[in-house]
């Protein structure tokens, strides 16, 4: 179990969720009962109609020991982007959507927070991807937790990319797109494109084409220390890289494009009583839910 002592937590919520206010009130009530300070971010304060504007950026993360994210995986990704700069772990609470990172159900919230206060949890480190693009000295760097997707902005146009790994030529992809995914992202866009499911704490990277023109082009898994270089073929002026569905980077054939494992990571809190395979069964419907399996086993 963890040696991390939790005396203060922050909240980040998906404000559009019909369960947002209820979830925040549950956290607030739990905090008062257990003498744990609760710091709402701006979105949380707005949902609660607080007179304060909530806490943002450094002010929030300097005040807390952990961040409780209430929403779906999209909200979790937003929180992770901020938390990774401060080495603050995140606990994901699912508010009704299909979430692999927000795996704790709302009716389990109080129990999960109790486990957090008692130190009865583990912190998993998840790798990130660094994307470096640009020409000469003009470089842009971005970070992704799930994936980087290369595609054309024009509808129904194929992208053509040349890919090398560790300076070894791999192939010339003609496809609807190309996904470079972390193990965490292997259950996201890459999964729907036929990619493999990786255990989330693995040190590996998935290279997964989207609807490749050559049917024998299949997803491949490479070691986490692999360096991927991508070249956009001439004549394509509307190619972009999209990180975690949030950040878009425009690209040209002249750009140098490199992806590698980041020096940073994201810390995710996991409470006892649930394994990664329980999550897969529950979210993907493998042979019934984890509850059904436990009932069958007596």
Oligomer: single chain
Largest sheet, spatial ordering of strands: 7-6-17-14-9-10
SSE order in H/E notation?
A: EHEHHEHEEHEEEEEEHEEEEEEHH
CATH superfamily of the largest domain: Probable inorganic polyphosphate/atp-NAD kinase, domain 1
What's the number of helices?
Answer: 8
Level of helix content? Answer: 10-25%
Q: What structural category do the secondary elements indicate? A: alpha+beta
CATH topology of the largest domain: Rossmann fold
Uncertain spans, ≥5 residues at pLDDT below 50? 293-298
- Would you tell me the overall average pLDDT? 93
The total strand number stands at: 17
The best one-word shape is: elongated
Beta-strand portion reads 35-45%
Instruction: Give the count of structural domains.
Output: 2
Terminal CA distance = 27 Å
Main CATH class of the largest domain: Alpha Beta
Q: In the CATH hierarchy, what is the architecture of the largest domain at level 2?
A: 3-Layer(aba) Sandwich
Sheet with most strands: 6 strands, antiparallel
Radius of gyration: 21 Å
Can you walk me through this structure?
The protein has 298 residues and is α+β, with helices and mostly antiparallel strands. The chain has 2 domains: 8-121 and 271-296, Probable inorganic polyphosphate/atp-NAD kinase, domain 1 (Rossmann fold), CATH 3.40.50.10330; 129-263, Probable inorganic polyphosphate/atp-NAD kinase, domain 2 (Tumour Suppressor Smad4), CATH 2.60.200. It is 23% helix and 37% strand. It contains 8 helices and 17 strands. The chain has helices at residues 20-34, 42-48, 57-61, 73-83, 109-118, 189-192, 276-284, 290-296, and strands at 8-13, 37-40, 66-71, 90-94, 104-105, 122-135, 138-144, 147-152, 159-165, 168-175, 177-181, 204-210, 220-223, 228-232, 239-243, 247-251, 256-270. A 6-stranded antiparallel β-sheet has the order 7-6-17-14-9-10, covered by helices on one side. A 6-stranded antiparallel β-sheet has the order 13-12-11-8-15-16, with no helix packed on it. α1 (20-34) packs parallel to α5. It starts with 7 loop residues before the first strand and ends with a helix. The model is unreliable at 293-298 (pLDDT under 50).
